[in-house]
Each structure stands twice: as C-alpha cells, then as structure tokens.
Amino acid sequence: MNRRSAIGLSAGMAVLGASAVSPGWGEPQRNDSAGGFRWLHDFARKGAGASDDTGTLQRAIDFVRDLGLRTKDTSCLPSLLIPAGRYVLTDTIDTLPWIKLRSVGGVLLDFSTMPVGRDGLTCRNETMLPSTELRFPGNRSPFLDGAGGTISILGAGVARAEGRGIVMGNRQPSFSGEVRDAGGRNVVITGWRGALAIDPINTYLSAWHSCRFEQNREHGICVASADGKSVNSGERMTFADCTFSGSARAIAIDADSMDFVFDACSFDFNGDVVHFGPHASFGTVAFNHCHIEGIDGLLVDAAQAGKHLRTVFRDSIVLPRHWKRKDLSNTPRQLVAGKAKFSASGVEWRFESPAQGSLTALIGDEVPVESVSAMSFQQVHALPWRGSVINADGLFELDTPGTPAGALTHWSASVTAGADFAGSIVVAGPAADATAATQSSASAKRKQALHVSLPDAGNARFSVATRAAFPVVPGDVLNVACSAATTGVTGRVKFAFHFDAAPGVPLSTSESQSAAHELPAAQATVPAGATQAMVTAAFIGWTGQLQIDELAVWRSS
C-alpha cells in the first residue's frame, strides 16, 4: 500500500466512536468494528506490494458486506475510513449503498491504469436482505462521503476511457435490495467516458451534494436501459451545489419515469445540457437557482424523445456562449427543441452580440410551452418563443404567394413620393448559413417572405406597418425586431410604436433608429393610458431587392 499521512486512531475514535456492541434488529448483535469504523489499512495484506490497492479496498468493503449479510441488519455497520493519499486501483470496485466509504483528508482513487473499458465503482444492492421495519436503515447517508476531505475518482482520460466513474443501480429486479437513499458528498469524478451512470432498476431517492462531474467525454449523468424501461426508479434524484462541465451532454436520459432536481448547480461548457434519448418518456428535470454557461448544442434537446417529459427552469442564469466553437458569437439562437414541455420563470439570458441574419426564437415552435414569465435579458434582447409574438403574421406567411405588397391582409405598405417600387409575397427558403444544431424549426419550415424592388437612387423610404392594432398594458416593455436582407445597399431601419388611448384616439409615439448594417431591433415601454398599439418599420437608404423575412413584436415577459 502507498504510504499516507493518516489521522491517528485515537483521534478517529474520538470523532467517530460508537459502542463496540450495538443492538441489531430484534436482538443484540456483535459489532466487529473498532468504535463504529475500520481503517482501510487494516485490510492490507502483510508483505503485499505498494503498487496496487485494489485488493485492500475490495476486502474492506467485503468485510462490511459480510457483516450485514450475516446479521441480516445494516443499521449498525462500521464505516470504512480512508486516510489521505493516492490509491492505485486496477479493477472495478464493487460496493453497496449501506457500506460507507469516508475520507480522512484528501483521497484520490486513481483508476488511470485500469483497462479502459471497465467502470470505476459500482454501487448495487443485489441482495435478498429483508427490509425490516426500518426499511434499509444503513442506506440513509452518502456511500461516498468526502466530508473529511474530497474523494476524487480519476479515470483513464477523456480521450481513452470507455467506462464510467460510478455506476448505480441493480441489473435485474429480482433482488429485494434497493439502491435508495444513496449518493455522494464532496466527490470529484473526472477522466471517464461518463461520470455517473444510473441503471434504472430499484434506484431512487439519490442525493449528491457539493460534487463535481467534470471533464468526462460523453456525459455527466447518464440514465439508460436496454429497452428504455425503468423499474421502481427515478423518484427524486437530487443534486445540490454540484458542477457539471466539459461533457458532450451534461444530463443524458434514455429511460422513462426519471425525475431530477438540480438546486444551485453549475453547468459549464457542455454540448447539450439536457438530452432526452428516443426511449425517454415521462419525468421532469427541474433547475432552481442554477448557472448555465457555455453551450455548443442545446439547453434542452428532446427531438428524439417520447411524450410527457418536462423541463422547468426557475431563477437561473443562462449564458449560452459557445464552448468549443470560438468562431461563433454569443448571439440569440434556438436553445430548446423537441416535444418535451418547457417552462421558465425568472430566467436571466445573457447574450453578448445581436443575431446576424434571421430572427431566431430561443424556443422552437414544436416545443409545448407551459409558461414563460419574468424573463430578463442582458445586453441583447431575444424572442423567447413565437407564441409570445403579439402582432399578426410576423412571418408574412398567411397570404397567398404573389399577393402584392399593398394588398397584404395584416400589413400596409407605403413608399416615399416619386419612388418606384413593386412588392409581392414570393417563395423564400431558410437562411443559408443556419446549421442543423442551431437553426430554428420555424426557419426550417419558412417558405414565404416579403420581397420589394427598390430604386437604385438610394433615397427610397419603404415602410411597412401593422394594419390592425394589438392590445397593450401600461408598463409592459415591447420589443420589435426585423430580419431583412438586400442584394443591394443595406441601409437603416426606423421603428415607431404608435400608442392609442382607445380606437381612433392617438396617445403618443415612440421612435428609434438602428445603426447602419446592424440587425435592427428596438424597445419601448407602454405609456400610462395606452390600450393598443401599432408598429411601423421604415427602411431608409436601401436599394435593390429587399427581402423581409420577419417583423415581430413581443412583450418582455
């Protein structure tokens, strides 16, 4: 065994002491621990080499396991204390939720020389122990407890490893033992294919506190089964004050009936934050007071998943700066896709530059939105979802192709005196530079746009305005944005909000003008007394063929 600096036995007994004879279930049972704990080095074989600690750790675990099986009671078992130091492990360590591995100082469980296809620790409860009236009493505390110093679990490396750092759950439902009330505290898992894998058979009520799942290639958490079915699993899987970073998917779920709660957690620089596989159906993933930063993929990807899934975000911060694609700006883009229900309240979105090209909603059109409220934006405002647009026909898709611009149902068009122009609805494809990962579903389906031919003089002023007013509430903040392009010179756009106290009773006008060559957007606060509003967008100094793909107004929710 590698030499370590360890806290003395007497100090450990003072902190963790317990009676050497403890009552079992129904009758007194002999407790073979020294004061309620055993030191790991007690299980080292004399004369054994110092290069491999696998046998020592597994013998210690098996010792406690045998105590529980022999007495048929897990309520009075000793904890296994691991002194500070590095432990070289060359094979999978098998443990149970009622066996407690506790650090005394910083502990490194180093699996880096283990064959790359093997898992680090497995936590299963494949026993036939009766539950007794206490219902598995030994489970109710972390089976990995780094409260006395962090427990780090190191794999073979992000590029090489094929195993997972920790695997929880049984492999078949025939055992009466359950993996419940089990989890970890102050644990770091890094250098694996995935950090934590959950086999959803009799696995539930798991809690992880102050842990880091970082720099693992495919996932931070993965739930999967061969047929996508879970058995008595998924209830209240809780993570508090944890960090998930550097994985293709922070949370990957491909089984049914999984309910996860993340409180005060950080999700830093992942591909997808939540990814539902084709077998995922039923279940909720909830985020409360979380910080989410660096997303190359999607905040929620449920494109392949089944029905009855939900994601909920409350009082959290989303900074979707790209993780690896440094060439891409942090601009508004689609972040939620698929059939999972979505709700968000009090979410602060942090974008650093305006969108270039199409106006993309953060939430795809196909997503069932339960509620979106109290959204906050820093620097750049974005359209949360197209269901929040309050003006009619923002995508110019409700009139027949070929309709003249002056005969649109929901828009009126005009041009400065003396300027020649022609306009019509024509077929227009999606933005050419949109990628599969970030292209909005609406953009992918978009077939129509408003096309206008403007004179080459450069002094034409083409305006388009909502034909009918839309209702407003004093104090609301309105946003307007336009996605437009031209084959000639790109000019400026001037927006005007016209507020009415009542139909036909003008109240006030709020105007703003974009700088040249920027995607135009504007914002206005509804004044007191206003009940309805209309919007005008004037295109100044544009020449050639002007294409307006979208002109949308929405409230800051």
Task: Please provide a brief summary of the model.
The protein is mainly β and 557 residues long.
Relevant terms:
signal; 4 domains; 557 residues; elongated; Pectin_lyase_fold/virulence; 45 strands; disordered N terminus; Pectin_lyas_fold; 21-stranded parallel β-sheet
Calculate the terminal CA-CA distance, rounded to whole Å: 61 Å
Q: Helical percent range?
A: under 10%
How big is the Rg?
30 Å
Structural class comes to mainly beta
Indicate the mean pLDDT. 87
Number of helices: 3
Shape: elongated
The CATH architecture category of the largest domain equals Sandwich
CATH overall fold name of the largest domain: Jelly Rolls
**Got a strand count?**
45
In CATH, what is the homologous superfamily of the largest domain? Galactose-binding domain-like
Characterize the largest beta sheet: strand count, sense, and whether it forms a barrel.
21 strands, parallel
What fraction strand? 35-45%
Return residue spans where pLDDT drops below 50 for at least 5 consecutive residues. 1-31, 429-444
How many structurally independent domains? 4
The CATH class name of the largest domain reads: Mainly Beta
